[in-house]
Design goal:
- By secondary structure, the protein is an alpha+beta fold.
- The protein contains 15 helices and 9 strands.
- The longest helix is centred in the last third of the chain and has 68 residues, at 465-532.
């Protein structure tokens, strides 16, 4: 069986000798066709319904939206609806759900303090959670660069068989008359590669060679074995391009700076988020107070309608006064609905930012803002506040870090312009004997050494244009960031001054609108007395009521704008407004 097998493979070998190139081409073509027929995509299978969603456009139907519907002529004129009932619930600050007529319940309420809103937002905000990954990623990138000097253990093994012709005598011999000498070489080399901080590489290796010569077939030459163990040391060191401690540590320095950049970006995102939440809180506070004003105005309009109805029934006033009063009630009812719509929008924005698990966007829970405004007139030291802003703004810190990164890039690109000059040094000592033990003794005792030095130079023939262009680009980028810092400083100064002007202006608005509310209230009370005595109409009373509502709304708007201006001042100076109860504690990144 073995003879048949040997004959079979020898025939195949003889057949392949002349057709080997064509066989290799056929294998390559079949491999390429097999690769094209296969699907190596990672995302297999695709998410369900992808192609269906791309092919179809869904038409919005009523059944997608509605739980029930009612026609306009089916609604009585005195119907108020759920929106108005919810607004009334807010206006009287109900704490627990109460059963209405018909069995439905009012929405639950939840008291929220401003510090609590800020705390919950920092803990739950999805955008901030996403941004928090960036420092962790940058830290891992730094660890990657710091591990560049890690030593590596490598090992290689090589087997070589060489068939050479050996003549049996001197003089001319016809082809095929010589003998074949088989030489087997076994090479095993373990190596420790140590990257040096100078930019070079140190290699420590223990190569071991075994050479077996079987001798010429048909002759009396004996088989020989030669064992050659050795110990080697090698050093490769760039002398110009890529050499030096600063060059090799540049990537680590850049990674550290980028880690600091990611930390500053996270802090900026946190400060911006806190400012957005605080402003959203005050927006909701304003909408909440405006709704209470509109509901109170609605109640006053109803009182005016009841008064007009009573006077008409007594014959003191004509029926048109009652009609005018009822018209005012209807208009004020619309104002309540608009105010409730604004409250819902600002409430949803606050819910979205807080992202509380027990307070989703679709919940009917009503937020009750419990932190009141800080009504104080503040007089600012503008020069000192601008200095504080220039010290604390994260945008300026990020620019400083980027300029440091640019300096590293310029240094590295200057180094890349230099010629490539490599110094190589190799030293080894070995032993060579037929037996491995004897060869090892020779290695340890005789010190048969070999060493060499070499210099390898590379110089681009066209002036290293790519490296020079990259250097010019890095210098331009550095100059751009330096100019951008001046733009940032001017922008920050303007932002601070605008916020200070807004705070001072809004304080004056508060004072002016407070006076307007007092005078409008007196006018409204006087108009009611005039109406009761027959000297004015319901229109005059409703006009006075509207004027009072406008003054109260303007006062609330001034208060809200004043609080938001204080938040803007804090953000413009790179700080957190103190009324929120936030204290910034540095973590590992700052250290």
């Amino acid at each position: 069986m073995s003879n048949k097998g040997s004959e079979f493979f020898s025939r195949i070998s003889r057949g392949l000798k002349g057709n080997l190139p064509w066989v290799l081409i056929g294998l390559a073509v079949s491999a390429s066709q097999w690769g094209c027929a296969r699907d190596f995509n990672i995302n297999r299978p695709l998410p369900p319904g992808v192609h269906e969603k791309l092919r179809k456009a869904t038409t919005l139907q009523e059944e997608h939206l509605l739980k029930r519907q009612v026609k306009l002529d089916e609604v009585p004129p005195e119907h108020k609806g759920e929106i108005f009932e919810r607004a009334e619930t807010i206006a009287v600050d109900k704490k627990k759900p109460e059963t209405r007529e018909g069995g439905s319940k009012t929405a639950e309420t939840l008291d929220i303090e401003l510090p609590e809103a800020l705390k919950v937002t920092v803990e739950n905000n999805l955008g901030l959670q996403t941004s928090a990954f960036n420092p962790a990623i940058a830290e891992q990138n730094l660890r990657v660069e710091q591990a560049k000097y890690e030593a590596v253990l490598a090992a290689s093994t090589v087997y070589t068989k060489t068939n050479t012709a050996s003549s049996s005598g001197s003089g001319y011999q016809p082809p095929g008359s010589g003998s074949i000498v088989n030489t087997h070489t076994y090479n095993f080399t373990p190596t420790v590669k140590i990257p040096a901080q100078s930019g070079g590489t140190v290699n420590l290796n223990l190569p071991s060679y075994t050479r077996v010569n079987t001798g010429a077939y048909g002759t009396f030459s004996p088989a020989t074995t030669l064992e050659t163990p050795a110990v080697g040391f090698g050093l490769t060191q760039p002398l110009l391009r890529g050499g030096g401690f600063k060059v090799t540590n540049a990537s680590i320095e850049t990674a550290k700076l980028k880690l600091l950049q990611s930390d500053s970006a996270l802090k900026l995102a946190t400060i911006r988020l806190l400012a957005n939440v605080e402003q959203a809180y005050w927006d909701y506070y304003g909408a909440y107070e405006n709704l209470k004003i509109e509901v109170a105005q609605y109640d006053r309009a109803r009182q005016q309608a009841n008064l007009a109805r009573r006077l008409v029934e007594e014959g003191v006033r004509t029926k048109v006064e009652m009609t005018r009063a009822e018209t005012g009630v209807a208009r004020q009812f619309q104002d309540v609905l608009l105010a409730e719509g604004l409250r819902r929008r600002t409430e949803n924005n606050l819910k979205r930012l807080m992202n509380r698990a027990d307070l989703p966007l679709e919940s009917e829970t009503i937020i009750i803002p419990k932190t009141g405004p800080r009504l104080e007139g503040l007089f600012f030291d503008r020069v000192r506040i601008i200095e504080l802003a220039l010290q604390n703004r994260m945008e300026l810190l990020d620019n400083e870090l980027q300029q440091a990164i640019d300096r590293v890039a310029v240094f590295m690109n200057k180094n890349a312009v230099l010629p490539n000059l490599l110094f190589n040094f190799n030293y080894s000592y070995s032993g060579s004997k037929p037996k491995f033990g004897d060869a090892l003794d020779q290695l340890l005792n005789d010190y048969l050494t070999t060493y060499n030095f070499s210099l390898t130079a590379e110089l681009p023939l066209q002036g290293n244009r790519a490296a020079k262009a990259k250097l010019r680009a890095s210098v331009l980028s550095q100059q751009q960031n330096q100019a951008n810092r001046k733009v940032l400083e001017q922008s920050i100064k303007q932002e601070v001054l605008d916020a200070l002007d807004a705070a001072e202006k809004n304080w004056q608005r508060i004072l002016a609108n407070r006076t307007a509310v007092m005078l409008a209230s007196e006018t409204y009370e006087s108009e009611i007395i005039e109406f009761q005595n027959g000297f004015s109409t319901s229109t005059d009373v409703l006009t006075a009521l509207t004027t009072m509502a406008d003054a109260e709304t303007a006062l609330v708007a001034a208060i809200v704008d004043h609080q938001k201006a204080l938040v803007d001042i804090a953000f413009a100076t790179g700080t957190v407004f103190g009324s929120g109860g936030v204290v910034w504690i540095p973590g590992k990144a700052a250290e």
